[in-house]
Design a protein that fits this description.
4 helices, 96 residues, three-stranded parallel β-sheet, alpha/beta, 38% helix
Length: 96
């Protein structure tokens, strides 16, 4: 991801309008998710090989890292797993 593209999105009104921001990362410590379901979530999924250190630092200033386990996933699989985890934690798949 080009640094200018990431910075442009982080400064966008769309990003500012979100309630909760996460980035999938296997090198950071996860912080506990909020108990109350957020209404608007941004979920960043990195490229194959994960985010660069510079991207991780920029994202950490605006979003929380979220570790979904020890497996390294392909980018397209990580997006599906991440969205499933969001729905399991706060959405339609939440246990009753």
């Amino acid at each position: 991801l080009a640094p200018a593209m990431l910075d442009t999105f982080l400064a966008s009104p769309l990003f500012a309008a979100t309630d909760f921001r996460l980035f999938l990362d296997d090198r950071s410590d996860s912080s506990p998710p909020p108990i109350e379901p957020p209404k608007r979530i941004v979920l960043f999924v990195g490229p194959e090989g994960g985010f660069s250190d510079a991207e991780r630092q920029r994202l950490a200033a605006h979003a929380r890292p979220w570790v979904l386990g020890g497996r390294i996933l392909r980018a397209e699989t990580a997006a599906i797993v991440g969205l499933t985890a969001v729905h399991t934690t706060w959405g339609d798949f939440r246990p009753g």
